[in-house]
């Protein structure tokens, strides 16, 4: 870790990670000659890594639904993890290099490469955050650097497998620790009190689930938690500007988004018992997003009808009109399109 940190301060001609691994391997070999063994890659793998060219073959598995049922869960999890890490890696590299990557192109290339890779006995892969940051820290900035890194790894495995077997895990752990140090956004520790507590909660949930489960599960859980928090917060941002005339007419001008998360607050805006005989719902500055909102408006309309009062809706957007039209079979709302153009309700 010290070598990776201090070597770039003197020279960047040689990647500090490579220097650290070579030096640690030499130290491990020297210590081994004195009877002190440091656990290496061969010990971790449980076998000696032998290089060689891959051979093309067709997977010898039965093509039926049973095989598909076995493969599908792992394929979905692997795909989610690969896509997620590729996108996140691309975002981190864009920030580090002040560039803009093409996410769609990266995902398509990754999918094609993994498809071909499977016919040569390889496992699926993606844009690994650790290797990518090592590449950037070592001076790589263009596509050629990725090709060189992949080619070098291939030649190492094919012709330098003996050296790979001797690499001590201590050296690799140090490299990965420095990757973590370089990747972690240390300024996020100062976010408390400066960013919404909901965002901090999502970060904690995703981090904990990643540790105890896997990245795919963590991402799915993070998306669900974020969606629920958004719905909860969005549901609270709805209010009404109320205007009442001397002729016994009251207008509720709704501001906000009507959806499943805001229908309870929306219903509390109305005072059916004390309202006059004529009530108008102005939706010019509101958006009806789902059928939960349509149903809530329909139930309010029925409450006014049961009280012997008229309740009509004016100034809907075309999307809202279409939604009410599609839900006409199970709603009882009254939309006054005739007055939509001649009634002027100043927005307050």
UniProtKB/TrEMBL annotation:
This is STAS domain-containing protein. Residues 252-348 form the STAS domain. CDD domains: STAS_SulP_like_sulfate_transporter (cd07042). Keywords: Membrane, Transmembrane, Transmembrane helix. SUPFAM superfamilies: SpoIIaa-like (SSF52091). The keyword Cell cycle does not apply. The chain crosses the membrane at residues 12-36, 71-93, 144-164, 170-188, 200-232. It comes from the Bacteria. GO terms for cellular component: membrane. It is a multi-pass membrane protein. It comes from Marinilactibacillus piezotolerans.
